[in-house]
């Protein structure tokens, strides 16, 4: 009899253990789901930062096929297309993002950025105009300045550039853009000052160094400024200065600068050699 009495007890224990196992299984499944979400987020971040841009495009395109409702994936695809310099496709991807539920003002700004990269300045302006004025970010004002520049609205451009500079800890790039804007207007003194500021903020920014030489050359100032430069950069800047002098009609000065550039360069400076030969032949 005792053995028969044990059977219901065993069944009860078995059912209890089964229920616990089911609950435990649910808990483990939920835990794995949480881990998968975290892993997916981390992988998305990796794809947006260190992965090859075209590989990132393929990754997000595949992910969208399985989860087309997730705006994060569409946003990742759009950003990856920009990184891959596939600008026309990026415009299409961002146009989808800004129409999806959960879109943000930053998405509109990124959409405007893609439009500018694709040369659609008018549409970029309309997109930025739709961003609330309370959305004050460095990228928004940098793009506003570029659009104002394209429309030759100089006062607006200067105002936006100034605001953008105050909203970032790394203003060298925007200072260089602002300086180039001044250079195209013929405001060479201000351009030279802004390029100098950009170089002080980032001594590796060769574009600003080259633009500084253009601003000085436009004022017939053919001496190199005191800025950080290695031997190769010095030779390239001398070459830029030489071409600027020749453009101004100061041909003999240009020849001298070309010879100095050739002798300064640590390797054979073919471009400067060709320029000097062309001048001497003419």
TrEMBL record:
Organism: Antarcticimicrobium sediminis
Name of protein: Flp pilus assembly protein TadD, contains TPR repeats
Keyword Signal applies: yes
Keyword Signal included in the entry's annotation: yes
Superkingdom, taxonomy of origin: Bacteria
Keywords: Signal
Signal sequence residues: 1-21
Classification via SUPFAM superfamilies: TPR-like
Alphabetized InterPro entries for the sequence: TPR-like_helical_dom_sf (IPR011990)
